[in-house]
Recover the amino acids of this structure.
């Protein structure tokens, strides 16, 4: 079997090209997230390219008035990998999307974002997908221990990887670093 690679990514609002949310209430942020997820779902349903069209949307710098800088962190990482490595990510790159799903549910849990991104990374109508496999794992809260436990559980049943990559850009990303070294 060929050497496998892993990309771990903690999902968040930036993956939807939503700008910084400092000063916004949880309700406003949750509404923005929901609206963007609905937009991406509609793009996948209405465009003949399906998920590929949604991936393209997440590369555009000015999708709408709510757009932040593009590409989204996840799509940017995948594009970087594709351009800078001779290996084909469709054959050897697994993506793990790390999300929160708390009890009781929190309006800013990131599981809906991760689920939508997993669909976006899925095959287009021709059967082509940008990566070999996408998994969504959840942590029950935002503390380091919960995130590292979720990632460690996933890695225990995953194939052996030659390389592990971690997207970087927020404080929450550091929470998963311990899981990669476990």
């Amino acid at each position: 079997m060929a050497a496998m690679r892993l990309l771990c990514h903690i999902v968040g609002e930036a993956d939807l090209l939503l700008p910084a949310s400092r000063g916004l209430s949880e309700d406003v942020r949750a509404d923005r997230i929901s609206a963007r997820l609905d937009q991406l779902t509609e793009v996948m349903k209405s465009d003949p390219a399906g998920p590929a069209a949604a991936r393209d949307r997440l590369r555009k710098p000015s999708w709408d008035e709510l757009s932040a800088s593009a590409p989204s962190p996840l799509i940017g990482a995948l594009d970087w990998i594709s351009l800078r490595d001779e290996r084909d990510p469709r054959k050897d790159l697994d993506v793990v999307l790390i999300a929160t799903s708390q009890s009781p549910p929190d309006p800013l849990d990131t599981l809906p974002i991760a689920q939508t991104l997993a669909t976006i990374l899925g095959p287009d109508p021709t059967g082509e997908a940008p990566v070999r496999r996408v998994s969504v794992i959840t942590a029950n809260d935002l503390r380091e221990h919960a995130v590292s436990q979720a990632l460690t559980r996933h890695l225990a049943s995953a194939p052996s990887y030659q390389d592990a990559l971690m997207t970087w850009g927020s404080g929450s990303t550091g929470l998963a670093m311990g899981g990669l070294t476990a």
